[in-house]
Amino acid sequence: MDNLRTFVIAMAGKGGTGKTTVAALLIRYLLNKNLVPVLVVDADANANLNELLGLKVERTLGQIRDEMKTAVPTGMTKETYIEYKMQEALIESRGFDLLVMGQPEGPGCYCAANNLLAKYLEILTKNYRTVIVDNEAGMEHLSRLNLREIDILISVSDPGPRGIMTARRIADLTTHLDVQVGKKVLIVNRTPDGLDPMLREEISKSGLVLGGTIRQDTLLATYELKKRAFLDLPSESVAVQDAQAIFDALIK
Ligand SMILES: Nc1ncnc2c1ncn2[C@@H]1O[C@H](COP(=O)(O)OP(=O)(O)OP(=O)(O)O)[C@@H](O)[C@H]1O
Ligand SMILES: [Mg+2]
Question: Considering only Cβ atoms within 10 Å of each terminal Cβ, which end of the chain, N or C, has fewer?
Fold first, then answer.
């Protein structure tokens, strides 16, 4: 990872495999390594990464896009106005900021607003060392962000052959988007101890590069139930340990 350019990491994978969990573990890792500032973009319409980060969402970009349909206050250019409005959606925390995309637009195209948002995002991301994008299943939401390059696309899968094939299909969807992907890696999540040799073979046949495995960790449910941030997970957590080994090898 060089210091000159923003490094973009995006999550992919089918529903419930652990994309948001891995994103939170990655943010924890980057903060601990002081690879900051980090911009976290929650591109899931049902945003919930904020909960794992211990933050409350007041405004989403979707809400702001809708508000922009109204007139710009007198004495303000449209650009100044949008910049001012977008700042309202940026949730600032220690070492990272969070931007929540919110619901996609309804019928009708607010094309002017969308173009302004895309332009603003492009400028904004340049201020950060790393950008982490959490997605919902499928990849079409990435196009809303207008990202041209993704350095690492992390596909998360459950430890089963069908999960691996789905991860492969979803990772392949990026070819239809106007986005360049540097590296695609697979993380197999919620594994029992170790990876079944047959599954390992399935992965190598799929053509996906195995980034590593993260074990099932009962501490995660405890933290979720207590509404504690995953950023505060202790280093004894097996998920934290496994994630650290993966990211050490992946982010250099
Ligand atoms: N390694 C793990 N050990 C134990 N529980 C886990 C692990 N990884 C994820 N989970 C749990 O699995 C559930 C789903 O995880 P998560 O929300 O991260 O998935 P997701 O892929 O982001 O889902 P969605 O597609 O709905 O956004 C959560 O309750 C989470 O705590
Ligand atoms: Mg999620």
Answer: C
Q: Is 20 in the pocket of ligand 1 (CB under 6 A)?
A: yes
Give the nearest ligand 1 atom to 24 CA: 18
C-alpha neighbours within 13 Å on the C-beta side of residue 14: 13
Q: Which CATH class is domain 7-250?
A: alpha beta
Q: What is the mean pLDDT of residues 4-8?
A: 87
- What is the distance between the alpha carbons of residues 5 and 45, in angstroms, rounded to a whole number? 28
The whole-number average pLDDT for the span 159-174 is 89
Summarised one tens digit per residue, pLDDT across range 96-154 is: 999 998 887 666 666 666 777 778 888 889 999 999 999 887 776 676 677 788 999 99
Q: Is the CB of 136 under 6 A from ligand 1?
A: yes
List b or e across 17-52, with b for residues whose CB sees 16 or more CB atoms inside 10 angstroms.
bbbbbbbbbbbbbbbeeebebbbbbbbbeebebbbb
Measure the N-to-C terminal CA separation of the chain; round to a whole number of Å.
Answer: 5
CA distances, 145 to each of 105, 158, 239 (Å): 13, 27, 29
Distance of CA 47 from the midpoint of ligand 2 (Å)? 7
* pTM for the whole structure: 0.94
Q: Taking the domains of the chain in order of start, what are their residue ranges?
A: 7-250
